[in-house]
Specification:
five-stranded mixed sheet; 30% helix; Dihydrodipicolinate Reductase, domain 2; Asp/hSer_DH_NAD-bd; globular; 9 helices; six-stranded parallel sheet; alpha/beta; 280 residues; 2 domains
Length: 280
């Protein structure tokens, strides 16, 4: 690809986000749709140009993408992430997949020619937190996500616990390291996974998180990020920043409306940084 060429983007997944990105790519003069893949090709017929429909994901390289964007499920990264990076830059829309230590190591090694891009999404202040991690001044990071019970897609014990949330009382579903939560809520805690990647000196085991099911949140998803930097935390004399992000969202929606625009902005920025792992 030359500097004057359009960036060819392949989209993996055609749910709400995939549909939104596909339309945005077609409307952007600097981007060109390389392909769209979806588990069910019926969803693509009549909505995506026939020559852009990828039926077998193993054939992605034939479409010559410059950037591949995953908005499907963490299993895509587990199976295809390293393969994608052999041919193109890769933006991972489900970074909870990287809670798997071996997979994270594999993808970091695979990103030697092309870049692995992690969209900030609903994670506010990611670049500043990464800078603190780079300097070794980030001491602690805590992320709290609160949503209506119907906006969670959970696994295991958390699914059962969330099903019992009634009335108007908020219930804490989980409190602990990000790594343990990711496989239990792979569709709901991408923000926390991004936090763990930005705060790389703490990682998935050091970054703490809380998941709260709140029946009163009928119009919002709320993400709180608490950061501690230089100073004495034990004496409450350390640098501390606490941000609260209220993202408009209807009951039952996994993704808040503002996240769509944020994700698109990340996709547009996901190129030109070379090999390695990059926030965008």
């Amino acid at each position: 690809m030359t500097s004057a060429s359009k960036i060819r983007v392949g989209v993996v997944g055609y749910g709400n986000m995939g549909h939104y990105l596909t339309k945005a790519i077609e409307d952007n003069d600097n981007l060109e749709l390389a392909f769209v893949w979806n588990r069910s090709t019926e969803a693509l017929e009549g909505n995506v140009k026939s020559d852009c429909i990828l039926k077998d994901l193993n054939d992605f390289a034939i479409f010559s993408p410059d950037l591949i964007v995953e908005v499907a499920h963490p299993c895509i990264t587990r199976e295809y992430g390293a393969k994608f990076l052999q041919y193109a830059d890769y933006m991972i829309g489900s970074p909870t997949a990287l809670a798997d230590k071996d997979l994270e190591v594999t993808l970091r090694k695979a990103a030697r020619v092309h870049g692995l891009y992690v969209p900030s999404g609903a994670f506010w202040g990611g670049e500043d937190i990464k800078k603190m991690a780079d300097r070794g001044t980030l001491q602690a990071l805590k992320v709290t996500i609160s949503k209506h019970p119907y906006s969670f897609k959970l696994e295991g014990d958390l699914k059962e616990k969330n099903s019992r949330v009634t009335g108007d009382t908020a219930v804490e579903l989980y409190s602990g390291p990000v790594r343990e939560l990711c496989p239990l809520a792979p569709n709901n805690v991408n923000t926390m996974a991004v936090a763990a990647l930005a705060a790389h000196n703490l990682g998935f085991d050091g970054v703490q998180c809380r998941l709260v099911s709140d029946p009163k949140l009928t119009d919002w998803h709320i993400v709180e990020v608490e950061t501690w930097g230089p100073g004495d935390i034990s004496k409450d004399k350390a640098f501390h920043c606490h941000t609260v992000r209220r993202n408009p969202a209807q009951i039952g929606n996994v993704t808040g409306s503002a996240t769509y625009v944020s994700f698109l902005s990340s996709m547009v920025r996901a190129h030109g940084k070379g090999p390695g792992v990059h926030l965008c």
